[in-house]
Design a protein that fits this description.
Protein name: CCN family member 5
Largest sheet: 3 strands, antiparallel
Function: May play an important role in modulating bone turnover. Promotes the adhesion of osteoblast cells and inhibits the binding of fibrinogen to integrin receptors. In addition, inhibits osteocalcin production.
Family: Belongs to the CCN family.
GO cellular component, one term: nucleus
Number of domains: 4
Helix content: under 10%
Strand order of the largest sheet: 3-5-4
CATH architecture of the largest domain: Irregular
CATH class of the largest domain: Few Secondary Structures
CATH topology of the largest domain: Omega-AgatoxinV
Number of helices: 2
Oligomer: single chain
Organism: Melanocharis versteri
Amino acid sequence: QVCAQLCRRPCYCPWVPPRCPRGSPLVLDGCGCCKICARRLGEPCDFLNVCDQSQGLVCDYSSAPAGTGATCNFEDDEEGCEVNGRLYRDGEVFQPSCKIQCQCLDGGFNCIPLCQEDVRLPTPDCPYPRRVEIPGKCCPEWICEAQDQHLLRDARAAPGAASPLLRYPCQEWGTEWSACSATCGLGFATRVSNQNRYCRLETQRRLCMLRPCPALPAAFPA
């Protein structure tokens, strides 16, 4: 009945097809007559203005208040995940930043770091290694910082100071915190640091939580 009311025969379509925004392909409208731009996730839709089925989208009327139109959404039977306000399909691989790569799995997501988490310890030829951000590069890199000469001069001049032959004065040093071990709920992040009373390198941990875990669905009797 809807098709008979809205679809005119024969079809009358514009001579030039519309120019679609990026990510919106040309598809046939709901009548199967004219080519239109497929509606994307979150955009309004109806019988004529169809959603992009290649992205697994359908016209969702369930969340539309009475008297208002529907919007394009993923099918209910398809698991997905939401990261930073954007929805991803189950199995889809994405990069929230250039430093990590994630995959949407069963409503959650797993991430792996794309930057090496190696640790560079002080050595005689590089007593002050430091990890810094390099302009134009995503991953931080290790550099050998020059020895702080003015600290040694102050140490020599101070009465009762430690011997100037001390080659490795203790300076605070540590790696960046790793990614959280859990995709939802409480997990932990680790780093290597010498920020302790003995100035020794040790692995430190702290609690972290990326997002709360979704509530389990209530069990219904058979």
